[in-house]
């Protein structure tokens, strides 16, 4: 059984399924019976990868919106106890989109769990699609959120992976505080080194981020369409329609792995 809240489990049914037309639509009932006979996945359980990721990000955005007030309240309460100068307060807190940073932490934690459910190649496809969509979901035109998502993922991977780590949310908290510049100030550096405070700050991430991909993996199979044929202008004008068009090679959507040393640079 899924450990997702019931409202998220119910919304999984709203994910658009792969559409069938023409002869495939006519043959669908026969295919469905054949699949049932051999114990294969139902046609209705096939979901296109980009649609699954879009749905995942919408759910993580909702989770972040519900839990960010508690997270930011904990952070601001601790900062209010410090004798930070106004300039330091502005440089470390006010100028940073902390709500977007927190959203990146939510996405990264659940994306890290996803890697244990799918083969490496398909997991990379999912991560690539997350990188394509997450900034737009956050309402940004830059790559602030996607860069932080992959930075946190790298930290979790360096920590031997989410399944073998006791506190992966602590990695997310550290990464967010680093992005806010907590290492650059003596007072905030002391806050960042306080394991008890980090544990308190990471509580919403540890408790309230649902295992969305686990529930999805139990109910659906991902479909990744082949890339559409691409013709150069010369080929489009000169080649006969009987010749097969060239097919664009599939792009590697997730950035290449960074070295361990670069991931540890803070």
Global Rg? 22 Å
**What's the total helix number?**
14
Low-confidence stretches: 30-41, 251-266
Decide which structural class fits the backbone. Answer: mainly alpha
Instruction: Please state the average pLDDT score.
Output: 79
Helix content: 55-70%
Helix and strand run = HHEHHHHHHHHHHEHH
Per DSSP E runs of 2 or more residues, the count of β-strands stands at 2
Strand line-up across the major sheet:
1-2
* Outline: globular
Beta content: under 5%
Mind summarizing the main beta sheet? Answer: 2 strands, parallel
Distance between the termini: 40 Å
What can be said about this structure in brief?
This protein has 266 residues and is mainly α. It has a domain at 47-227. The chain is 62% helix and 2% strand.
Please, could you describe this protein's structure?
The protein has 266 residues and is mainly α. It has a domain at 47-227. The chain contains 14 helices and 2 strands; from the N terminus they run ααβααααααααααβαα. The protein has helices at 6-11, 22-38, 49-80, 86-94, 98-114, 120-137, 144-158, 168-179, 186-192, 195-201, 203-208, 212-219, 233-238, 260-264, and strands at residues 46-48, 221-223. The protein has a two-stranded parallel ribbon with strand order 1-2. Helix 7 (144-158) crosses helix 8.
List keywords for this structure.
single chain; 2 strands; 62% helix; 266 residues; mainly alpha; two-stranded parallel ribbon; 14 helices; disordered C terminus
Set out the fold topology.
Blueprint: H1 6-11, H2 22-38, E1 46-48, H3 49-80, H4 86-94, H5 98-114, H6 120-137, H7 144-158, H8 168-179, H9 186-192, H10 195-201, H11 203-208, H12 212-219, E2 221-223, H13 233-238, H14 260-264
Parallel strand pairs: 1-2
Helix pairs in contact: 3-5, 3-6, 5-7, 5-8, 6-7, 7-8
